[in-house]
Amino acid sequence: DVAGLVLIDPPEQNVAAFAPAWAKDDVESSKQRFAFIRQCAKGAEQGLLAAPPDNLKRCISPVVPFADAKVTAAVVGYKMKPAYWHTLLSELQNNQIVFAQPVSANENHGSMPLVVLTADNTYADAPPAVRKLLEAARESTQAHIAATSTGGKRVFVKNTSHDIQIDQPQAVADAILAMISDRQMATQPKR
Question: Would the pTM of this model clear 0.85, i.e. be above it?
């Protein structure tokens, strides 16, 4: 039932082939990240996050500093639930496994419309030498993903971090609307 795909800055896959030292460091830092998430999950299970002790305050700090009070309250609200932390841990652990591999040579989306939105500043915080390697890994990944469909293409979005949907939400909406419009045009009977 999928009529098309718009992917928002898919992360680099098989990064160890491009930046082995960075990949090794990332695995080590992930261990610390996972321990933190487990600590937050335990705090949520024990009902400690409503008035967290010092060691758990980071668990509920707002992620988006420019969000309004309603959004901040919603973020804090779902972070108090153990399910949030269990889901986050599962996602990040599975990402580590999935993204360690290159895009499968068997991945094929036929002629399905497929747009890969590419951010221009995903690795702004990385040291220049590492940034170049990460950009090469992402370039390889995204080019391979776009090539999985004869209708695949990449669209480069300026002034964006990895979070294109936050930095340039209109670019995401435009890509989706263009795909819908193209799809409708393709399915209308010819006169």
Answer: no
